[in-house]
């Protein structure tokens, strides 16, 4: 069995049906226990987003939201959606919506726990699952295990799929011209030798080199620089992309009822042509939905814990809202671009085409960024592929920055001494730069399988932890709810009064 086959098998087992049931079931459970907070507190989600300011110790709620969005809004919102449709049909989009709706309550719980049990390290707030496992569950072994898994996932396994997507999109948009120019510049012999050495097209090597150069400049600047970059770039990339999607949808608005009907029918196997992929629709919808919105993965609590807020519940609501923005807006925008333009084919488990929407050229035999680029290109000739490549760069690159922030937070958790932390952090930076470059020249399937392993491992550890910590999480929610019902616009948190211990930064 080859290495790629081993990776694919591990990915399948880690994120198979038991995981899907656990993820959706946890979201449903917390939705019921909180009275569907994702519906009742939608207004608070928006208002809390703009309250609070950054301090010397913590970033603002808006910065924490953008830092989390930098992780949520990534390649999963473009390539992930395209992959889900290719392997599960349009019905996968419905299961992405379901994952997001119930996941919003999970996101609230994990983010509020991140706030409750945060710590101040080197003058900055740090937190996340490792911290709330240690302080809330008082289980050092479990906390250490999660921190190690997170560093492995965020620092090694997940960055490659982001850089791979950037590389693929830029190859589709500029590959032919760049490779021709490079060959003329360096000569055929050197060009062919370098291409053989990397086992990749030279434009992919160049793209990977530029990505890691920019990455190195930013991550050596520290967490404050990451927050500032995310705060500026994330709204720009998301709004621009959504506007583009809305223009395409508006040009095809008469087809919207048919698209919704197709999504719903294929989600439940009622569409005759797509009935055979209903299992894949659910599986891919949930898996790619989680990859996009990260609700339950344990990533957002790291950003949530860094915020300066008056009550953990407010940051929990902010992070729940980010799940909506990620999936209901950005992922849906991508799905509509692909489906309304017919730029997709649906494949079975062995790679046979079971449905062809008819929009893709027969010369295109892959799926991923090309589906989105072809959809935009259909309406904006000569501009679509370039626009999506640039948008995907911002989406994926800010996600890599968020991965670094989370890995760094867990390095600090493991290495309390400053001297050890200094060397550990710099080793992390070098490793991330290397794996990000490798990802840019890797195959797409390999990159996604490796990423799914990291995604699944983190999620298993985190979901079990928040279920075990549901008591302090729900106490915190009910405390927030009680104060809001009393008319308090900005609730204050006093953990001792509601029986929560070890919330040291709130004393």
The helix content, as a percent range, equals: over 70%
Please, what is the oligomeric state?
single chain
Structural class: mainly alpha
Overall form: globular
Q: What is the alpha-carbon Rg in Å?
A: 22 Å
Strand content: under 5%
- Biggest β-sheet description: 2 strands, antiparallel
Number of helices: 22
How many DSSP-defined strands? 4
The overall pLDDT, averaged over residues, is 87
Low-pLDDT residue intervals, each spanning 5 or more residues: none
N-to-C CA distance: 55 Å
The topology string of helices and strands comes to HHHHHHHEEHHHHHHHHHHEEHHHHH
Spatial strand sequence of the major β-sheet:
1-2
Short précis:
73% of the residues lie in helices and 3% in strands.
Report on this structure:
There is one protein chain. The chain is built from 22 helices and four strands. It is mainly alpha-helical. Strand 3 and strand 4 form a beta hairpin. The radius of gyration is 22 Å and the shape is globular. The protein starts with a helix and ends in a 22-residue tail after the last helix.
Secondary-structure map with pairings?
Elements: H1 3-14, H2 17-33, H3 37-40, H4 42-49, H5 61-72, H6 79-88, H7 91-116, E1 119-121, E2 124-126, H8 129-137, H9 140-157, H10 159-186, H11 188-198, H12 202-219, H13 223-251, H14 256-267, H15 278-293, H16 300-305, H17 312-340, E3 345-347, E4 353-356, H18 369-379, H19 384-414, H20 418-441, H21 444-468, H22 470-485
Antiparallel strand pairs: 1-2, 3-4
Helix pairs in contact: 1-21, 2-7, 2-21, 4-17, 5-13, 5-17, 5-19, 6-15, 7-14, 7-15, 7-17, 7-22, 8-9, 9-19, 9-20, 9-21, 10-11, 10-12, 10-19, 10-20, 10-21, 12-19, 12-20, 13-17, 13-19, 17-18, 18-19, 19-20
